[in-house]
């Protein structure tokens, strides 16, 4: 089948299911204008100063950098925070929200599992308790030294960054308990101090939601193999189902391959294009 035929078939499934699981990786945000950090060259295209410093994404996404070079660390995360605050989620996010409310048999609604830290799903109206962010969120802060398990909103902090050098130029965010340096509440590389208590209740709710759903549809968007958390989660639900039926659609421009299972399909399309086409197929069923 070609992509259009696969999407038409999945649209039929969507009309029948009582639960929709949306799983998303970095590729989901590309159509909103966000970088996906694909390889060093992709990362350096988004953050040119880091190329001259010889810093990869792995080098930057580590708690140790906040100790050795906090201005650079907060320069990088400050740029990201400002970018994610300003981003307008693309139409595909809005379509997913519409389906979560309007699909005819969707008794249990939709749940989101994402490795993205940008908060785009919440921006289009998904309730925070229905968005499990397995790597945390840039919109929350925690103490770098773990003086407390508390986390707090980053809303009151506005980083000012010299983009030419990727350096923070205003004051650092600090821990309200000890006064020490704060960091984003994001799971980084070699990170043994990430505070996950904001996500744990959502993980539990997702597990309970999955047990309740009888006929499940999974739409996976922009989840690659470099950091395969999202892909493995969806594949596990397909390979070891706890539901009466599972239908799985993988949307990935470069890596659309799916498990060898009759209820799995992959389309080599971008997230926005695929979701717009899927919406067309849903409307054709109703016409």
From TrEMBL:
InterPro entries: DHS-like_NAD/FAD-binding_dom, NAD-dep_sirtuin_deacylases, Sirtuin, Sirtuin_cat_small_dom_sf, Ssirtuin_cat_dom
Lineage top rank: taxon: Bacteria
The keyword NAD belongs to this UniProt entry's keyword annotation: yes
PANTHER family xref list: NAD-DEPENDENT PROTEIN DEACYLASE SIRTUIN-5, MITOCHONDRIAL-RELATED (PTHR11085:SF10)
E.C. number(s) listed in UniProt: 2.3.1.286
Domain Deacetylase sirtuin-type: 1-282
MF-aspect GO terms: histone deacetylase activity, NAD-dependent; NAD+ binding
Principal EC category: transferase
Keywords associated with the record: NAD, Transferase
Record-given protein name: protein acetyllysine N-acetyltransferase
């Amino acid at each position: 089948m070609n992509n259009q035929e696969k999407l038409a078939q999945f649209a039929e499934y969507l009309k029948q299911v009582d639960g929709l699981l949306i799983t998303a990786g970095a590729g989901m945000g590309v159509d909103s204008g966000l970088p996906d950090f694909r390889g060093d060259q992709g990362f350096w295209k988004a953050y040119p100063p880091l190329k001259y410093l010889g810093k990869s994404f792995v080098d930057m996404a580590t708690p140790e950098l906040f100790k050795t070079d906090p201005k650079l660390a907060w320069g990088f995360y400050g740029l990201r925070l400002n970018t994610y605050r300003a981003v307008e989620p693309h139409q595909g996010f809005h379509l997913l929200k519409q389906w979560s409310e309007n699909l005819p048999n969707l008794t249990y609604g939709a749940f989101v599992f994402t490795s993205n830290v940008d908060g785009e799903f919440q921006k289009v109206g998904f309730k925070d308790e229905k968005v499990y962010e397995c790597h945390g969120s840039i919109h929350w802060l925690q103490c770098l030294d773990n003086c407390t398990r508390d986390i707090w909103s980053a809303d009151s902090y506005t980083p000012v960054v010299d983009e030419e050098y990727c350096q923070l130029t205003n004051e650092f965010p600090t821990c309200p308990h000890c006064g020490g340096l704060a960091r984003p509440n994001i799971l980084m590389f070699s990170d043994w101090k990430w505070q996950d208590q904001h996500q744990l209740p959502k993980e539990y709710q997702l597990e309970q939601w999955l047990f309740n759903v009888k006929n499940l549809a999974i739409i996976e968007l922009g989840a690659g193999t470099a950091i395969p958390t999202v892909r493995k989660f969806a594949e596990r639900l397909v390979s070891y189902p706890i539901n009466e039926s599972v239908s799985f659609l993988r949307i990935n421009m470069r890596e659309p391959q799916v498990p060898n299972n009759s209820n799995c399909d992959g389309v080599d399309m971008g997230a926005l294009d695929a979701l717009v086409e899927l919406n067309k197929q849903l409307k054709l069923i109703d016409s």
